Amino acid sequence: MRWLNAEEQQVWRAFMTAVTKFTDHLDRQLQRDSGMPMAYYEILVALSEAPGRALRMSELASVCHSSRSRLSHAVARLEKEGWVERRACPSDRRGSIAALTEIGFGVLEAAAAGHVTAVREHLFDVLTPAQLRSLAEISRAVDAGLTTECANVRREEFADL
Amino acid sequence: MRWLNAEEQQVWRAFMTAVTKFTDHLDRQLQRDSGMPMAYYEILVALSEAPGRALRMSELASVCHSSRSRLSHAVARLEKEGWVERRACPSDRRGSIAALTEIGFGVLEAAAAGHVTAVREHLFDVLTPAQLRSLAEISRAVDAGLTTECANVRREEFADL
DNA sequence: CGGCCGTTGTTGAACCTTCAACCAGGATGC
DNA sequence: GCATCCTGGTTGAAGGTTCAACAACGGCCG
């Protein structure tokens, strides 16, 4: 078992502190100004960018990195607000399609300005161009590490079959 | 209103994807292997490092970047598990002190190994030393941007008094 | 066709977080 | 001393997430 040395500890804590404070800030901003948490905002964004502003639940889940259960609950709420509506899927009778309504699109447009401003103010404006490039690389590396990990887990699961 | 250009969008999405997947992974690991979410783990860590393994609630809240309400609920749960106990504060009769129990310390020790392994595996092992230094700088910059922001908000609030 | 398995999506319970309201105790000013 | 305000901490309700269980459908192979 290899523990973190002093320097690693510092990086780790600085990172976690920044991330929690940052996401907390964004979440609060959206909740306050637009009445939805960031996860719900991401759902609306994903739908708005899809062809026909509609997606099957499972695709939406994978785009948003959300579990199907979470998405199901979330869409139920968004539907109650009238921002999203559910349709039957013509090609697969199990399927369900979530579609952004006009009202939902308007709400998203209204929410976007404040959200983007917050992101710019607390991320892009406090970092140099070099740091931004570095952050992109770092993010991709971490992401890749997590995806291959999942693949490895699967490999292990099936190793003895 | 200045939107994000294509390059900024890429950085932003890569970053959010990495962060959500990474924290999700850590949270799930801790929940599965030790029966607590990461926020609760952080509370135990903070207490274990405090003199006498005890802290006043408000100090604990600030160390953990948690709201007092959240901490109160969390400590209630930790107390029910027998991992933490509450004591009266001698110097301030409003105060409440959370103290790590022996059992709690043992649980923390048991949880730490798996958690640190996960952090090392998905953060330190996938980044180069230069990237780690860069990540530390970036984190500090973002953190600083958020703290001065709060100060600014306060200044605005009281500007006309 | 019929059985079996994997996938899709939903549901309810348990848990965590947030928010607003609140009580109790310190601190300040008169 | 007392009114006022601020701080420390808790509480309950409302909302969000997770997990396990489930129903319904598609795909595959005999």
From TrEMBL, chains A, B:
Coiled coil residues, start to end: none
InterPro entries xref list: HTH_MarR-typ, MarR/SlyA-like, WH-like_DNA-bd_sf, WH_DNA-bd_sf
Domain HTH marR-type: residue ranges: 8-144
Superkingdom as given in the UniProt entry: Bacteria
SUPFAM superfamilies associated with the record: Winged helix' DNA-binding domain
GO molecular function list: DNA-binding transcription factor activity
Matching PANTHER family: MARR FAMILY REGULATORY PROTEIN, TRANSCRIPTIONAL REGULATOR, MARR FAMILY
This protein's name: MarR family transcriptional regulator
